[in-house]
Amino acid sequence: MMYLIIFFYLLSFVFFCLAISTFLAIPKAKMYPPKKVLKHRMALYVIIAIFCFFIAWSLRYI
Predict the structure, then answer these.
(1) Which of 20, 8, 10, 9 is nearest to 45 (CA)?
(2) What pLDDT does 34 receive?
(3) Helix axes of 2-25 and 35-59: crossing angle, nearest 10 degrees
(4) How far apart are alpha carbons 53 and 32 in whole angstroms?
(5) Do the Cβ atoms of 12 and 49 come closer than 8 Å?
(6) Which Pfam families did the record assign (predicted)?
(7) What is the pLDDT along the chain (62 residues), one digit of tens a residue?
(8) Domain chopping of the chain, boundaries
(9) Could you tell me the CA-to-CA distances from 50 to 10, 11, 17, 27, 43 in Å, in that order?
(10) Which of 51, 54, 32, 33 shows the shortest CA–CA distance to 43?
(11) Residue 29 and residue 34: Cα distance in Å, rounded?
(12) CB of 15 within 8 A of CB of 53?
């Protein structure tokens, strides 16, 4: 069970890093990919990171 908890914490960290890198790429975007697509992608990464974090957090109490 501990491996599963660590896996979900690492997965949430990876998606959080992807969200940060996407956020930092928004000012550089001109034509492709559009800023709107980057904002949607960043929101998706943040949602997945939070979801994985809460899964790992809830597995600690099983």
Answers:
(1) 20
(2) 87
(3) 160
(4) 31
(5) yes
(6) YhzF (PF26302)
(7) 899 999 999 999 999 999 999 999 998 887 777 888 999 999 999 999 999 999 999 999 88
(8) 2-59
(9) 12, 10, 12, 24, 11
(10) 51
(11) 6
(12) no
